[in-house]
Amino acid sequence: MAPISFLIACLLAFTLEIFFSPPVSSSASLLSNSKYSSSMKDLIKLGEGCVNHPEDVSVVVRKGALYTAARDGWVKYFILHNETLVNWKHIDSNTFLGITTTEEGDVIVCDTEKGLLKVSEAGVEVLDPDVRFTNDVIEASDGSLYFTVSSKKYTPAEYYKDLVEGKPHGQLLKYDPELEETTVLHEGFYFANGVALSKDENFVVVCESWKFRCRRYWLKGPRQGRLESFIEHLPGGPDNINLAPDGSFWVALIKVYVIDGMQDRLLKQRE
Ligand SMILES: *[C@@H]1O[C@H](CO)[C@@H](O)[C@H](O)[C@H]1NC(C)=O
């Protein structure tokens, strides 16, 4: 069972993600106070009290629906026009993190214990049972799935050990649906969390929660295979990230609370 603080962080991240993180580009001025408070006024809460610890959302525009996977095992969707919440498919699990919806209408779920799952009308299929602590996933237009493993050393319940150890145990991976094979694209992330594809699919952005930054991994072009800075010095630990319609990204931030005296050390670690 994950510590309550982690669940709260997940919930907070979810809330932030939907409701008030302004889209940022790599050069954006972040969370300036006026922007922050003015967008707060327009918040609407969806499904309050009806969803058990959802960690991520994914919108299917043509269905007008918002999908999520809750800790009660239900993959649900919320029909926006009439505000109806539908329990779609049930999985015998309570260890879901990130999700994405696919072109075909399936939902890909990161289950930190069972691996990478595909949920469709037909049922649940485990795409890769060998990966643990998967955190977020995105589908490319060729059907490939890019996903993160936050820590190959620790479990979600031990996330604080990963933080305190301060070593990069995170990975970016790719699942090829034709070959039914997973490959590690890059290692050495400080808690790889959210992952998003750029609009042109030339790169993916990976959030590194413990470093308060996001990195860019090039999939195509002259810089293919290289990992570079995307945005640094975020005002919190980045959690999930989604592409916005204009090509910028929405990033959910985790407020990291530290006990007296630890803050300086953490800040040093971030340098
Ligand atoms: C909400 O809309 C969907 C179709 O978009 C429909 O199938 C469903 O029955 C509606 N639910 C309610 C409670 O009206």
UniProtKB/TrEMBL annotation:
Domain annotation Strictosidine synthase conserved region: ranges: 139-222
Xref: Gene3D superfamilies: TolB, C-terminal domain (2.120.10.30)
Keyword Glycoprotein on entry: yes
Record keyword Signal present: yes
Signal peptide: 1-26
Any one of the GO CC terms: endomembrane system
Subcellular location: Vacuole
Keywords carried by this UniProt record: Glycoprotein, Signal, Vacuole
GO molecular function: hydrolase activity
PANTHER family: OS07G0614000 PROTEIN, STRICTOSIDINE SYNTHASE-RELATED
Family: Belongs to the strictosidine synthase family.
Protein name as annotated: Strictosidine synthase conserved region domain-containing protein
Organism: Citrus clementina (Clementine)
